[in-house]
Automatic annotation (TrEMBL):
Superkingdom of origin: Eukaryota
Keyword terms: Actin-binding, Coiled coil, Repeat, WD repeat
MF terms (GO), sorted A to Z: actin filament binding
Protein name: Coronin
Lineage of the organism: Eukaryota, Metazoa, Chordata, Craniata, Vertebrata
InterPro entries: Coronin, DUF1899, WD40/YVTN_repeat-like_dom_sf, WD40_repeat_CS, WD40_repeat_dom_sf, WD40_rpt
The WD repeat ranges on this chain: 78-120, 128-170, 171-212
Gene3D superfamilies per record: YVTN repeat-like/Quinoprotein amine dehydrogenase
């Protein structure tokens, strides 16, 4: 009997990527050259935000989505941070509220005016101080309004209640820098990856570690919950330094369900999961390819679909929320690709080829909308609730009516779980000590150069004075 490949029926096997034309891109943007492993980009149905290269502090641009084309060099910026901005995230329920974190140890909440910025914005509506070192990651809770998570280089994750502007919980189970955080569908579990080569599943309100995996063969970098399938997917590096992905059961992290090597490139692999279509996208930092797979609940769990290829390398990728997609074009996912070399932001649409232009209900199920399911007090008291769903057929243009109100408070010491966070500083990492050493060496070299230049100038003046005294006119 002849061997035949197994045929697998899927409505997404012909999904293809379509890059926007040049006039629909955002051009002339000084994208940050920071090497931190974040996307430096955030997008929602109204605005695109990009971290930019700037002197004397950190800044980012906020551009209305319809304002495509070339961006003027003097375009207004959000520029209130004293250090480089490391991460930005839009509030999922209030479309003009964005959070940012920085090397200046602060997290700030900004309110963008209707129609975008008309002048530079330097005053945040809320400044949050609780980390003793720089803050590398921020993440909004997926179902609760005004709950924000921040992860700093002090190895702590702080949970902020923005109704009162204070940290209300602290997760202190990590022994090194936190690389990535991800929530499950209802926000009752938090998965983290850490530089200590461990993958953890944490109950965020208590800070209790439910599951922990020591990844020796698969060094994890990024993690994402695969919707409500009770699965986790991580990207990392194998012991032979090849890029690799692994699938895990969230209730048993003793061994991965599958491990699959991707390629031998060195750039970080960013995973993106679409729970509505059960599709996984893998985008490599520094290369232009986006691979996509379909996730199933049975073996082989992971089925390769296709690959979008581009010669332009990507620094990071922003993802459009579902309610911002073009359903008339059968668009199921949209990336905003940062191309640093060209100063360009390029939208890439993932499209299911269909002949009919009517609404396709089979590829657009009910999806999490713009209404929160819980208040901060409800979630903190232990209530879990699935996100409020919306139909993209009628409701995807609906604007949220929630308004952000910043609390009025005085600056004081930040005490959580009986610990003053601003005083409890952990020891510096080896990388930070090396950076400090090289910075000091550069400063010593600069001072030596200045001294040698002054020494040369003094000798020149002495020679000029000697020549002046020996000249015939003076005799």
């Amino acid at each position: 009997m002849s061997w035949r490949p197994q045929y697998r029926s899927s409505k997404f096997r012909n999904v293809y990527g379509k890059a926007a034309s040049r006039e629909h891109c955002f051009d002339g943007i000084p994208i940050t050259k920071n090497v931190h492993d974040n996307h430096f980009c955030a997008v929602n149905a109204r605005f695109l935000a990009i971290v930019t290269e700037s002197a004397g502090g950190g800044s980012f641009l906020v551009i209305p989505l319809e304002q495509t084309g070339r961006i003027e060099p003097n375009y207004p910026k959000v520029c209130g941070h004293q250090g480089n901005v490391l991460d930005i995230k839009w509030n999922p329920f209030i479309e003009n509220i964005i959070a940012s974190c920085s090397e200046d140890t602060s997290v700030r909440i900004w309110e963008i005016p209707e129609g975008g910025l008309k002048r530079n914005m330097t005053e945040a509506v809320l400044e949050l101080y609780g980390h003793s070192r720089r803050v590398g990651l921020i993440e909004w809770h997926p179902t609760t309004n005004n709950i924000l998570f921040s992860a700093g280089y002090d190895y702590k994750v702080l949970i902020w209640n923005l109704d009162i502007g204070e940290p209300v919980k602290m997760i202190d189970c990590h022994t090194d820098v936190i690389l990535c955080v991800s929530f499950n569908t209802d926000g009752s579990l938090l998965a983290t990856t850490c530089k200590d080569k461990k993958l953890r599943v944490v109950e965020p309100r208590s800070g209790r570690v439910l599951q922990e995996a020591s990844c020796k063969n698969h060094r994890v970098n990024r993690v994402v919950f695969l919707g409500s399938t009770k699965r986790l997917l991580t990207t990392g590096v194998s012991r032979w330094n090849t890029r690799q992905i692994a699938l895990w059961d969230q209730e048993d992290l003793s061994m991965p369900l599958i491990e699959e090597e991707i390629d031998g490139l060195s750039g970080l692999l960013f995973p993106f999961y679409d729970a509505d279509t059960h599709m996984l996208y893998l985008a490599g930092k520094g290369d232009g390819n986006i691979r996509y797979y379909e996730i199933s609940s049975e073996k082989p769990y992971l089925s390769y679909l296709m690959e979008f290829r581009s010669p332009a390398p990507q620094k990071g990728l922003g993802v459009m929320p579902k309610h911002g997609l073009d359903v008339s074009a059968c668009e199921v996912f949209r990336f905003y690709k940062l191309i640093t070399l060209k100063g360009l932001i390029e939208p890439i649409s993932m499209i299911v080829p269909r002949r009919s232009e009517t609404y396709q209900e089979d590829i657009y199920p009910m999806t999490p909308g713009t209404e929160p399911a819980l208040t901060p007090d409800e979630w903190l008291s232990g209530v879990n609730r699935d996100p409020i769903l919306m139909s993209l057929k009628e409701g995807y243009k609906r604007n949220s009516k929630i308004v952000f109100k910043a609390p009025v408070r005085e600056k004081k010491s930040v005490v959580v779980n009986g610990i003053d966070l601003l005083e409890n500083v952990p020891p510096r990492t080896e990388n930070e000590l090396l950076r400090m050493f090289f910075r000091q060496q550069d400063e010593i070299r600069r001072l030596k150069d200045e001294l040698s230049q002054k020494d040369i100038r003094i000798r020149q003046l002495q020679l000029e004075l000697k020549n002046f005294r020996n000249s015939p006119k003076n005799n």
